[in-house]
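Reviewer comment 2.1 asked that we show a complete input and output for one of the modelled complexes. We chose the phosphoenolpyruvate case, as it is the one discussed in the main text.
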Amino acid sequence: MLVVMKRDATKEEIDAVVERIKEFGITPVPLPGAERTAIGTFGSTSRAAAEAVESLPGVAEVVPISRPFKLASREVIGEDTVVRIGDVPVGHGHPLAVIAGPCAVESREVTLETARAVRAAGGAALRGGAFKPRSSPYTFRGMGGEGLEILAEARAVSGLPIVTEVLAPGDVEAVAAVADCLQIGARNMQNYSLLDAVGEQTKPVLLKRGMSATVEELLLSAEYVLARGNRNVILCERGIRTFERYTRNTFDINAIPLLKRLSHLPVLADPSHGTGKWYLVAPIALAAVAAGADGLLVEVHPSPDHALSDGFQSLSFDNFRALMGAVPHVARAVGRTEQVATP
Ligand code: PEP
Ligand code: MN
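Response of the prediction step:
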C-alpha cells in the first residue's frame, strides 16, 4: 500500500505513521516528493495496518499498489527519475544521452581512439566491457582488471564518463571503483545476487532487458536494485529473441513507450544488440528516439571488421557521426529538445 500524506503534513505526523506501520511488523519506506511525502509498504500488508493508519493525523489517503513492481512503478513514484552518469543527467526532460564505444575493451589503442571519436561526435559517455559475458567460452572474454585501467585512462583523455559491465558480485567493488555506471547485461538480468550487490553500492546501474524477459520481469529486476537502496537505475531495451533469424534479436520498440508509461526510470535503447547488423543500427536508433527513449547505447569501433566481439553490429566512426547528425532532426520532429547530452 501507499500511504499518501497531506501536503501540509508535519514531520511528527509522518514519523507517527512510520511507527504505527512498524507495529504491524511491516517495513515502511518513506518516499519524499516535491509535492508531498508518501510512505510505501511492500510485501504482504495487513488490512488492519491500512485501516489503522488511514485515520492518523496528516494522512490524505491509503491506496493499494496494483503492480507487482513497487519502487520502479509510476504508481509509487510519480516524478521522473533523472540518473547522473558522471555529470551527465539521463532522463525525461534532459538532452538525449548517447553512450557509445566498443563492445569490449580489447586494447588500449582501440579504446582511446574510440573515446576521442565518441567525444568529438557529441557522445555523452564511453561504453566498453572489460568483463565480457560470451555465449561461447572459447571467444574473447575481455581484459578484466587491465581493461578497467584502460577505461580510467580513456576517461582522463576524453572527459567522457565510463559505463562498463559487471559480471559477478565479487567484482562489483573493483568495477565500481572505476566505472561511473555499472552495466548489468542481458544474461544477468535475473542474477538476483548480482542485483542485490549493485543495489548495495551507490554508482548508477544500467540494467539491460534479458533476451527472453518480459517487460514486467525487467521491472521486477530493477525492483531488486531499488529495494536495496540504490535508486539510480536506467532501463535498457536491447532486443528479444523471436523466430526471426535475419536479425540477431528483434528490437521491441513497444518496450520504450511502455516502460516510460509504467515506470519513472530513464529508458535507453540499444539498437546494436537489438538488431545485430550495423546497417540496421541507425534506423532503429532513430525509431527509438521517436518512441521516447532517453538515450542510446551504441557499439562503435575504429575498424569493425577487426573487432574482437560484435564487429558486425558496430558502427564505424563515419557511420556514428552520421547517426549523431540525424538524431537532432528526429528529436525535433517529435517535439523533443534537439540537443544531445555532453559531459
Ligand atoms: C554488451 O552491451 O556488449 C552486451 C553484452 O550486451 P547484452 O548484455 O545486451 O547482450
Ligand atoms: Mn556487444
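Residues 199 and 226 are 6 Å apart (CA to CA). We note this here for comparison with the apo prediction described in Section 3.2.
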